[in-house]
Amino acid sequence: MEASAAAEERLGATEAAEEGAGEAGGFTSVRRRKRRAGDAAMETGAAGGPLPRKRPDFPPLSGEALGGGKAEMRKIPVPANRYTPLKENWMKIYTPIVEHLQLQIRFNLKTRNVEIKTCKETKDISALTKAADFVKAFILGFQVEDALALVRLDDLFLESFEVTDVKPLKGDHLSRAIGRIAGKGGKTKFTIENVTRTRIVLADS
Question: What is the per-residue pLDDT across 111-148, written as a single tens digit (0 to 9) for each?
């Protein structure tokens, strides 16, 4: 007890001397505030590490709220040679888009476009893109069953290009290039599909 009291007197004398020297020089010394052990214990958890921050909890937004409250629409043009197949397979295209993706679809006879639109029942914001890719795949010549995989799976995509985009060919040279891709009886095309796990359609040939 006597040793601690003597130490406190020396500490007080030292602080008083520092204050006097500071005031003489025109400065006022500031006493440092000691950090209490209780404050440090409040900032750390039971294991000694920092307390985890609580994540904000936001309710999930509906498809209508994600779209800004406005209905979105996609238009897919239909060439003349696909009118009949579209009419014959309309219910196979209509059913998954309306019942599973909760979208609205119609065929505009004036503009010759398939129009797909979101509505209040649409829950997934990516449903519109899936439906548009599904219809585009059918218009390009894929079977409905093959095109339907674009709706069911997320890791599939659709790509279309002209043979002349790869190499400018004309006349018989173009026909021979398309024939080599297809092969005799379609064997080459089937081999490419099986190896790469894709579906290929050679249209407008």
Answer: 999 999 988 888 888 889 999 999 999 999 999 998 99
Confirm whether pTM is higher than 0.90.
Answer: no
For 111, half-sphere exposure in the C-beta direction (CA atoms, 13 angstrom radius) is 9
**Angle, in degrees to the nearest 10, between helices 187-196 and 172-182:** 60
CB 83 within 8 A of CB 145: no
pLDDT in tens, 42-83: 555 555 556 667 777 777 665 556 556 677 889 999 999 999
Sheet holding 113-117, edge to edge: 73-77, 113-117, 104-108
- DSSP code string of 33-75: PPPPHHHHHHHB-TTSSBPPPPPP--PPPPHHHHTTTS--EEE
